[in-house]
C-alpha cells in the first residue's frame, strides 16, 4: 500500500469518524433530555459497533466468528441508511432547534420536540424503505427490432439484475423472484450481473443455488458477471456453481438461440481491476456474430451505450446503478451514466437499465423499487433494402 493510498484511507477514516461522532452526539443530547443520560461507555460502544458493523461483519463472515459476524453485518447494513438520512436531517434539525431556542421556547420544544420529529421521520423512512426493498414490482417495456428472427415474431424476456445474494438477501427473496418471473411467463430469463453480494460462501452454504435453479424458461436462463462477483474474488467457482444449476455465465461469449437471435454476454468492466483479465470491446465481440440476426447484449454497467450503438447491438440490458437505491442518490447516478434507469433509444439501439431486484448495504429503497423487468420484443423483417 503506497503512501498516497494510506493518506487517502486515513483521511476517509477521520472524516467518517467525525461524522459518526456528530450523529452520536446529537443522539446523546436527545436521549439525555428525554429519558436521562445513558451510560456513556455502553452508548458509545454501541455507536462504534453500529458504525463499523458492516465492515466487521464482512470481514468475519467466512471465519469461525460467523455466528457473530452475520447479525453484525445486518445491523451494520441498516446503519448505512440511518447514517445517510441522519446527515441530511440533523443539520436542518439543528438550525430549527437553534431558532426555537433563540425565540425563547423551552427545551421540551427545541430539543425534545425537534428530536422526536427527526426520530419519527427516520422511522418512517426505515419502514417505507424496507417495504420498497422487499416488495418487488414488475416493470414492463416493449421494443421493436427491425430484423427477422426466423419464424419467431415476438420474444418475452424476464430480466433481473443485482440480486446481491449473501448474508442479507437469501432464499426468501429468491422465492419472490421466481414468483414474479412466473407471472411474466417469459421465453427467456436474463440476469445482467451482481448475482452475488461479494462472497460466494453464503450462496453455497445456505443452499441458494437450489432456490435459483427454480428459474425456468423455454429458451433457458443466462447470466453475466457484475463488479461484485469480481470483488468476491471467486469468479471461476461462481461460474461453476451456476453451470451446475443450468445457468451459463457468458464471459465475452455469445449464444445463438433457435437460429433466431443472439444473446451476447460481456464480462463486467471491473474484470480489468480484479485479475479478471479485462474484457473485449463490443466491436470485437460482434465481429464473428451473424449480424443479420437480432443481437441482445448483457452488460452489467450501462457505461458503453455509444459503443453498443456503433457496433450494431439491437437491445442492451444492464443494471448496476440501483437508481441510486436511496434518494437523493439518483441525482448522482444520473450524472454518472447516460441512462441510469429505464429505457432509452439511441439510433437502432434499445437500452434498458434496471434498478435491480436486490440491493447493496441497507435493506432500504427510497425513490426506487426492487424490480423484475418484462420486455416484450417484436421482430419486424423490413426487407434488406429497408434496413
Automatic annotation (TrEMBL):
Segments forming domain Calcineurin-like phosphoesterase: 156-323
Chain ranges passing through the membrane: 7-28, 40-57, 78-103, 109-130
Entry-linked Gene3D superfamilies: 3.60.21.10
Name under which the protein is recorded: Phosphoesterase
InterPro entries per UniProt: Calcineurin-like_PHP, Metallo-depent_PP-like, Metallophosphoesterase_sf
Any GO MF annotation of the entry: hydrolase activity
Keywords recorded for this protein, A-Z: Membrane, Transmembrane, Transmembrane helix
Organism in which the protein naturally occurs: Paenibacillus oryzae
PANTHER family given in the database record: TRANSMEMBRANE PROTEIN WITH METALLOPHOSPHOESTERASE DOMAIN, TRANSMEMBRANE PROTEIN WITH METALLOPHOSPHOESTERASE DOMAIN-RELATED
Superkingdom as given in the UniProt entry: Bacteria
Source lineage: Bacteria, Bacillati, Bacillota, Bacilli, Bacillales
